[in-house]
Amino acid sequence: MTPSIPTTAPAPQATGLRPETLSQLFLALTWMALQGFGGVLAVVQRELVERRRWMTREEFVEDWAVAQLLPGPNVVNLSLMLGHRWFGLRGAVVALAGILTVPMFVVLALALAYAQWGQHPQAAAALRGMGAVAAGLITATGLKLLGALGRNPLGRGWCAMLAVATFLAIAVLRVPLAVVLVVLGCVAFALTWRRITP
Fold first, then answer.
1. Using H for helix, E for strand and C for coil, what is the string for 39-105?
2. pLDDT tens digits, residue range 24-59?
3. CA atoms 18, 156, 180, 39: torsion sign
4. Is this structure's pTM higher than 0.70?
5. 197 dihedral zone (left: phi>0; alpha: psi -120 to 50; beta)
């Protein structure tokens, strides 16, 4: 008689930490947004999971996945979700203000500077160099978040296959992102539903 294998992984333990005030939420998201040059995923993960410990890695992976499925910038979607979770409607509004207000002025200033000096060879070289750094930041963050897949109900094997399928579809076959999200997202949803439904 073969022993039964559990189909669900243990739920991740929440950190229990959260911003204490709306002003703390606003300042944290503003600081996070100001650091997000080229690699916002890396900054968001480091600030929310590693530095402030407002989320576990598992919570971050799940919430970031939802933020990616919603229309609009991922970090804005995530900020709205977290602000609402912690403080309700007021938190969502404050989170949106924190993630957009100061960075908007920075972007306007950079746009003016680029209009004036963007054609200089040094500026073009600097921008190309920043692209390489951004790619490195995203890769490093992805590798750090691999550990969170161990608690996923699908297990590491299915998660790895879905990740490889996503990479091949986008990077090799050039399938539109919306199609990949719908098709592979539905496959992952169906597989997970089968695993967690008794």
1. CHHHHHHHHHHHHCCCCCHHHHHHHHHHHHHCCCCHHHHHHHHHHHHHHHHHHHHHHHHHHHHHHHH
2. 999 999 998 888 765 678 888 889 999 999 999 889
3. positive
4. no
5. beta
